[in-house]
From TrEMBL:
Keyword Transferase appears in the UniProt entry: no
Name of the protein in question: TonB-dependent receptor
Membrane topology: Multi-pass membrane protein
Biological source species: Thalassotalea profundi
Localization of this protein: Cell outer membrane
This protein's UniProt keywords: Cell outer membrane, Ion transport, Iron, Iron transport, Membrane, Signal, Transmembrane, Transmembrane beta strand, Transport
Keyword Iron: yes
Domain of life: Bacteria
Taxonomy of the source species: Bacteria, Pseudomonadati, Pseudomonadota, Gammaproteobacteria, Alteromonadales
Record field: transmembrane: none
Amino acid sequence: MTLYGAASYNEATSNSMAGGNTLSSDNTISAQNFATENTLVEFGLKYIPTDSDWYADGALFSQRRSLRNRDGSNTGIRTEGFESQVFYDAYPYWFSAGYSYINAKYDNSSSSQDSAQVADAFDNSRPDIIVGNNIGAPNYTVFSPSNRQVQGIPEQSISINGSYSINSKWQAGFSGLFTNSYPLDFLATVNIRDQYTLNVNTRYTFTDTTSLRLDINNITNQKNWRPVFEGGYFGATLVFPELPINAKLTLTHNF
């Protein structure tokens, strides 16, 4: 049996200013625009049984960081979480399964969206679709400092990966990802549901320098969604659809 442990601490500061509306009413730059410190504390553990084909590892972490806003200001984010993985490798198979928990909240900081809620995008002329508030969108909204959950980040996810070597030149594999439901906007009026994606792949190696790989993604043709970006500035009114079932063929040659 082999047991590994590791702990790390990292602190970084970046003094940079984005363009845009950065001056306050008295024609000065707010100190909040330079609040870009990033502090990460992490502790990890790895367990390897003696004469075994598998191992397991896990890590606890706590991070305080800043999220750059569109107007050049920064919003504080406090993230705590846990990640773990089990890996099995015994030729011709290998398999891994991972779990992640991320609790991301505003660090007593304010946030903003292009619109306060999804209903702002509609007027009240079509109540059979949605009863809007007739405000219209976008209508830039700043929310008071809080410790609410950061929108656009799933709290829990599960991943799986595996491969089988048919022979010394030909391998076939798969991967999958599950994420639980999470809010898309600050007020949590819209949620992305539980969703998953399954992919398969195969690779053939012609020589030491040339190989051909085929990936077929989203093989169950799930109608999945993703936020525009973390922090959800457009979260109340905009979301991206992920690709339906699709394939990619890649030829690789190393010179």
